[in-house]
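Q: Got a minute? One more chain.
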Amino acid sequence: MRRSWLYGLFFVSGASALIYELVWERLLHLLLGTSTMAVSAVLAAFMGGLALGAWLCGRLADRTDRPMRLYAGLELAIGVTALLVPSALSLVSNLYVMTYASLQPSFWVGTLLRLTAAGLVLLIPATLIGGTLPVMARLALRRSAGLAPTFSLLYSVNTLGAVLGAALTGFVFLHFLGMNATLWLAVGLNGLVAIAAGLARGVQSQTTYSSTSSVGPSQQAAAIMVPSSAFWQRLALACAAATGAIALGQEVVWTRILGVFTTNGAYAFALVLTVMLLGIGIGSLVQAWWSRRGADSWARLAFVQFSLGAIGLASLWLFRGPPAWLLRYSDGTSTTALFVAEAALTAGVLSVPAFLTGLSFPLLVTGVSQDPRRFGNWLGRLYACNTLGCVAGAVAAGVVFIPWLGLQTTLAALALASVGVGAVAMTFAARPHLAWRGGSAFLAVAAAFMVWYLMPGGPYRKIEPGEAGELVYYREGDNGTVSVVQESSGRRWLLVDGQPVAGTGRTIVIDQKMLAHLPLLLHAKPERALTVGFGSGGTSYSMRLHGIQVDCVEIERAVPGAAPQFISENHDILSDPQFHLVVDDARSWLRVAPVSYDVIATDCTNLQYKSNGDLYTVEYFRLMKDRLSAHGLAAAWVPANGIAEDDLKTLLRSFREVFPHTSVWFMNTLATDFLIVIGTPGRLDIDLENLRDRMRQPAVQDDLNAVGLADPRRLLYTFLAADEDIEAYVGPGPLNTDDQPVLSYSAYGAGFRSTIAGNLVGLMAHRTDVIKHIRQPGPTDDMLRHYVASNEAILGHVAHLMGDERGALQHYVQGAKLLPDDRSFPELTFFAYTHLAPEDRARSTDPAPAAAPRISPPFGPVQ
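A: Always. Here it is, folded:
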């Protein structure tokens, strides 16, 4: 077999390996959660398997008489075992759920048990993947080529194949094919490689290797300076582990930093992985060319590591905020422009460090392994140590150092570690004299510490300081960067990775309160409720006003850490003995929660952020349904803005797939930008007397009064449609599922576009009177008056959102006439009048409205 065919096989093998990694990463976060711990488990299992496979197969590659058949067997076994992974992970998850009730483990013990079991499942196919590198490297070594260029080229080809696999999987396959079809595609690639390798001829095991012909000038020079003692060998292996830890640690840190400045959506991880692998592949390719020129591999490695450390420290000075051009392309006018801008930013940050990382490992291999006869053994050991270092670096950075030291200090520490590796490499170098090498290494380390001491401080923010208000809270947590910003008006916003998730703004307060009150009031007699997402704590507080036990599941510990900044909203809910905070992933908790709930409310404020879209899949809604009591209600916050109408229909269609009796509500006292979707066990049936009695409870009434919805009739006419009317609105079409998470991809960039007016118009075409769902509704004319007034409010909002302030004013005035005692219409009327153009104001036939009365938040100024 020609060497080009060998490289072709390894290229395809690299592509399939990255397809598996991305599919397994998604599988584990669906089954175990999206926390940093879960992601670290995937990485640890995958790369730990690679290390074990390289170590075991390294010696075997040197001893086997039929290396090509060994390689074919490995590829075939990879495909078979990978095909069994989804079923095995599902079994692990089900077994854990069955044993959870009896074990009742703590959060950390439970997490460790789940991740360990899942890691063992992934370890088998990952070990087989790791074994392919030393076997293929053994096959590629020929008399006519030097060891250094041969391995560097082979490593580059395999990595560039991984680039293709990561890019296609992250940007195309998961979106259009789905997870299961993508997995079968990877299995098919392994099968093709196995068949091609099994039928291969021309690579003979009897090939003899001449150490002089196979070793280039750089290796001959290096061989003089690498003592054979166990100490120096261990030191070389330690360098391999350190370079791996630095590379993956930097990737974790930059992924978190980039997550603040970008949309951090479905493409984010694939972008980072693609750029990193591309840089590594190009670096290895350059090393293949570079190794043909006589030089000292250890001296080059020292130079590369010094450069990596310098770039890491320099980035602390240069990258303190998003570049202006990124903000210009993030206005939502073009999804393509947004993607290109985020790809350019990712490449600008990671490409050079990745390129230097791509140089490092081949330099280590060629600096240590000079004898082709023992090349497989040494390559296996070095690759195993490097890969285990990758695992340690990723886990330590994500789970320990970032929460403990912060992003900036962790990145600086990794840069100093690079300089340290460079200093060690200098001691191995052939030239210059040992004293010069030791002195230069000392100066490099001293300079790095000086730069670290002088490095700038400050948080990572999406917008330049001063443009978004005063930063009053900042914490780099386990899974995201949490900050609280206060505007000059006094309003506060809670942001996670730059995404607003809660606050004291007018519309967001309505969101927080009504996601609690609406489902609880529609339930006949609730006793226990669960809210997904803590936010400011406002939803949890409003739930507790109903005198029930409230649980809240929150994945990021730093979010409830900001609760003291929102005392006006949560009233110190964390100290309430009837409130229980669960730090876990929502899907994980719903699988094992030891109780059933009368109401479960999911509050996610951005479908495109990270994996929020996975809390709107059919499978997630089934988890909600399974955890509800017999008469339980499901509630979900749904965006009305920043989502295309087809995507909104897909979301509602997916909800209806699990809850056929679905109703949609829009809080119309203001031009809010969200919907609340309610799933009931039967057709929506409202007991008006029960509703009135419970709304009269002083604490509940005061809380509803704060958002202008203390009147039962006003509350009921936030209803839009239910059941067959929702079915007619959504029509036939795709579902958002775990296998094909279409919303996670189609929502990319949509958050920057205003779509609420069109969505409301579409829903209004199917609106019905809530009176058909009310028992003993009372005077029909009174209910009809509220129905017409609510229509006027919504039509006014649509006119305002479309820039028609005259039309908005007319609708608000009509609503005020119908409901003269309602408190929201005077403010809406005044708001629309003040936004009229001067010429329109002069032509207006309606008298100028008096200033809106000063009333309680969110209609009055926030103190």
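A: Residues 202-227, 853-863 have pLDDT under 50 and may be disordered.
Q: Perfect, thanks.
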